[in-house]
Amino acid sequence: MQAATARFAVLNLGHFYTHLFLLLHPTAVLAMQRELGGAYGDLLLPSTAAFVAFGAGTLPAGWLGDRWPRERLLVALFLGLALGAGLAATASGPGMLTLGLALIGLSASIYHPVGIAMVVEGREQVGRALGINGVFGNLGVAAAPLVAGGLAAAFGWRGAFAAPALVAALTGLLYAALLGCVARPDHTAPVSAHTSAPRPLGPRDRRRLVLVLGTAAFCGGLVFHGTTVVLPKLLEARLGSALGGLLGVGALATTILAGAAFAQIGVGHLIDRRPIRAVLCALAAAQAVLLLAVGFGAGPALALLALAAMAAVFGEIPIHDTLVAHHAASAWRARLYAVKYVLSLGVSALAVPMVAGLHHRGGFPVLFAIFATLAAVVAVAAPWLPQPRAAMASAR
């Protein structure tokens, strides 16, 4: 039991680091703009390398996760994040910065196909575990504006990468030493005697599942990454003078994202007890309404609207992962997660240029109207998920 708890804690920490490091640059850009000058969109574009690598590395990581000890891949995750952030911190020009961000993205691509597969191993009801793990991932999202903003305010934009690089390196080395990952015998996906069997679907239902899950992953990936990238800039533009500068912007963004992250625990409980498609439909519809309102919001109401919108966005994540856990055997689960995350993370590479381009052309109202439209597509698709009765009966 203690070993399982420790393993779950490390998996949660890995999820936290993954999203924290991916979003250091979008907040550091605000400090770079003040120190170096230049347009926001131009300075933001190197983040595209991180998100492209994040998506491109997912399938290879899933393949490795079914063939190589997954604990070793987690060590590689921590050390790779450290190396990438170190390169970004010492960058002498845009090329080296882009290389560092790409290495961050490539290292981060390990987590979702490998780490999520480890989270659901040996569990009958996976919703709660995925909800808790998802909270840590989104706390990483939440912490990024505060960590990057605070470090950049104190030490300049390079400090936003240097300190996290040191912490990740120490974490990776400590994890390897304490858990003995490097010296452990080779194994890939241990199967517990208590692991729930995959819940078979007929050919028609499989097609419907793939279609809806693919649609939700594609649209949800754009909404998730687009909103988390643009939130610091939105708060700076609409509330910056009232917040007292970069640190205040980072603190509010962190508060919003941290509060929203806990929605995943509630959703995790719901999807263990209620039809998944009803929960998904309701959340996606709520996203559409709230995101549209955020695009036109101002003043204190904007912070409340952003909190509600991000809670709905974050709450959708464990639903996708639970669908995979219910229908994939452990031996190939990492690869199926990889395919799913290729869509949700691969299309996230479009989020940065989309944010930069739409912000330049139409401002926040147009950008958030696009986000709302994507959420509405998921709400329309959700009722086409296969009937949950068989899956629920199997879980009892």
Question: In a few lines, what is going on in this structure?
Answer:
The protein is mostly helical and 396 residues long. The protein has 19 helices and no strands. Helix 14 (276-296) runs antiparallel to helix 15 (300-315).
Mind explaining what this structure looks like?
The protein is mainly alpha-helical. The chain has one domain (2-188, 198-395): Up-down Bundle (Growth Hormone, Chain: A). The protein is 81% helix and 0% strand. It is built from 19 helices and no strands. The chain has helices spanning 2-22, 24-36, 40-44, 47-56, 58-65, 70-89, 94-108, 111-120, 126-155, 159-179, 203-243, 246-261, 263-271, 276-296, 300-315, 317-327, 330-346, 351-381, 389-395. Helix 6 (70-89) runs antiparallel to helix 7 (94-108), helix 9 runs antiparallel to helix 13 (263-271) and helix 11 (203-243) crosses helix 17 (330-346).
Secondary structure: elements and pairs:
Layout lengths: L1 H21 L1 H13 L3 H5 L2 H10 L1 H8 L4 H20 L4 H15 L2 H10 L5 H30 L3 H21 L23 H41 L2 H16 L1 H9 L4 H21 L3 H16 L1 H11 L2 H17 L4 H31 L7 H7 L1
Helix pairs in contact: 1-6, 1-7, 1-8, 1-9, 2-9, 4-7, 4-17, 5-8, 5-17, 6-7, 6-8, 6-10, 8-17, 9-10, 9-12, 9-13, 9-16, 11-12, 11-15, 11-17, 11-18, 12-15, 13-15, 13-16, 14-15, 14-18, 16-17
